[in-house]
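Give me structure tokens for this 456-residue protein.
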Amino acid sequence: MNKKKLLLISPLAPNSMMGKDFYFRLPTLGLLKVAALTPDDWEIEIIDEKVEPLDLTQSADLVGITSMTPAIFRGYEIADSFRARGIKVVMGGMHPSKMPEEALRHCDSVVIGEAEGLWPTVLEDFKQGNLKQTYKHDGFPDLCNMKAPDWNLYKGKGYLPVHFVETTRGCPHDCEFCSVTNSFGGQFRSRPLDEVEAEVRNLEPFEGRFILKNAVFFVDDNIISNKTYSRQFLERITPYNLKWLGQTSVNIVHDTPLVKQMAKSGCMGLLVGFETLSDKNLNNVGKSFNHPDTYIDVIKKLHDHGIGVDGSFVFGLDDDDEGVFERTLEFVIKAKIDVCYFSILTPYPGTTLYHKLHKEGRIFDYNWSNYTTSNVVFQPKKMSPEKLLDGYYMALESAYSYKSIFKRLWGNNSKKNFFYPMNFGFRQSVKRSAKRVRRSGNKDCVRIPVLNSGNT
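Here you go.
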């Protein structure tokens, strides 16, 4: 029996620091999960434009495209090209899920939300010539019996040597600027521990003299979302000699035994969403469980156990004035944050923030390509858009100066052989992005009318 050809594509975000400007080439877990859901009577190829070129003339029976907001116009361009040759296109991912009516102008079908429980039906409907315009769960699927991704599909693509593993989805906090709760539900859903351990056990170590052979990033939005589950999970993975990274909340400061267990299980670093040093901002966006007066304690506790901190901050919140950049820079150096990630507040479609700013008439740019967290697409309250953009790049360039890198990393207890290269890589990304923006004079910000959708 001849297999049908499924081509899965991740388009490149042209104006994003996390796109073509990003020094590190990280694998895309979403398409591997779609591939794992695909029956064996399909031949699968995955193309990720950030690591390889896409041939728009190649053959395929069906094309699947996933896309975040900043890459969506490129996704539509790809979809239009394949459809012009009579090839059916299905789109999914965060942006098409929030803007399905917009996406359907460029594709034949949209998978809204999670693919589990839907994708095999999509493929069967395609074979029967009965492809529906949209596929959507009534609720949220459970995470049992998920087939592990086949990482062999990514061999030779030049990705950074790290495996991505998911253990939970969902979040109850529903922060104003975040789309996780709206997309994945207001409760944490966890995978069975036996299945997670089996996936970790079967990961093939990376090869290379100077490579971390068992590097894993756990993509959960909060690795300590369920303390009982987290403790059992950490106990399960400890024997596998992992060097792992993940994401957590500031609430980690309240559980020293769990921090010790993380360190014992091989945790190298955690991304912590500090967001802002302003209590008023935190209350406004629904993240009042963050308390800036505890941030130093959080960082010190993790450092004391040899765990690095990737601190995330957002600029452009309503209480931010022009002094926010210097205050944040001073803090990240004083606190010795190993890696700092700054972003500009961005009202992604489907978020509470989008609805709020759209209603207030403060969004002036609906060119989705600029929704990168490195551009300004709305009117801030206490500064001009130009001041916000200039301050953002000033903060990034200052944070990743050689002087700042050494000040932040010198004297803390994290893994220097990991975080120094990471900082130098981010430095290159910042330089590329800043150069591109200055060269364009921010002319990328083209005013495009919003495309109506029932979801926004």
